Inverse folding.
């Protein structure tokens, strides 16, 4: 049997994988970045146990030589909070050494 | 060689296939539908020759028995306009006989 | 700080979210199901710490009234194994009460 | 009303947009490239009027510094054939000037 914090970490991972692979490849420009940020946040917040999602598209890094680019991990930073039966997990994604690293920032067990 | 209206129709098809397969599967609820509509419109409008995209998520049809559902063609209606070297194409998507049918509504040749 | 088994559960969740949202919406028929199963398995096995992915597309359930259907959780069963610094997690996905439930089957701490 | 060749070009565009945005972001390595090529081909061939799809993943270009990379247009070449009520369209995708260009190679009207 998995513990409650382990379940919470599993749920946090699901949200990250979903977020990334649902939206990677979306055409994005500095002008359309705000609506995409908001749609990503609100869509993933629909998922079970997901309390909050915060997405920042790094629009000053977007390659706009063809007017837009495709969203990849290189262009976004994400933080999300999962609450599962009293456990709370904060996780984030940012580039590290050329790779969009997803990581657990904190795991709190139920009181 | 393809004619200018044929190229415009090809471009319209690309936008529809992109729109559908980029966003199918996105978690959506009546609350998050407006931000998703807007993000879909603005992201696809980034693509070359795409003048306008209008997306309506049929939020009264969304299955909310688990709080949200995954976006499919069953839940959206789309109209888009492509302008390519003077040709203009209007195309739309709606359910027809249980299938999300994409179709050309009008094709205008360059004057 | 997260424990090693918690990190392993997070990694297992990432793989599930990625798998589901990358491939949901893919056109599939009984004839093309085997190549899609294999591609899903091999692509997700590329991800860090992912030891094994097993995907079964339930091709007898596919709606083929239009020749093919779009892949959703309704049509697949998945089991995957993650090994992270000596911890091992087995997780699976199957339909439960009309919802594609992802769950932790076992979590083993490092010896 | 659209002509038959225009409809065929629209259908060819749909297949390209679908193919690209369904599979962009998939984790891929030289080892998993062959199964992904086959799955892309067979899934898109399910779509209406699609006669043949040929996908080559340029596995010698894949960035494998993290063991795998995410599929983008930079790493694939595609050719597809659509037959629509006697019209036949051949279309292809390849990199051109840093952009994955989709283009019509030939359009044949019904005899």
């Amino acid at each position: 049997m998995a513990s409650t914090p382990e379940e919470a970490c599993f749920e946090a991972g699901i949200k990250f994988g979903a977020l990334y692979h649902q939206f990677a490849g979306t055409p994005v420009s500095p002008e359309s970045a705000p609506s995409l940020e908001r749609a990503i946040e609100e869509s993933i917040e629909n998922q079970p146990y997901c309390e909050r999602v915060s997405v920042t598209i790094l629009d000053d890094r977007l390659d706009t030589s063809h007017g837009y680019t495709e969203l990849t991990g290189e262009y976004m930073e994400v933080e999300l909070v999962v609450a599962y039966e009293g456990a709370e997990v904060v996780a984030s994604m940012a580039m590290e050494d050329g790779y969009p690293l997803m990581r657990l920032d904190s795991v709190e067990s139920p009181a």
User: Anything to note?
Assistant: Chain B is about 30% helix and 35% strand. Residues 4-23 of chain B form the longest helix (20 residues). The CA atoms of residues 29 and 65 of chain B lie 10 Å apart.
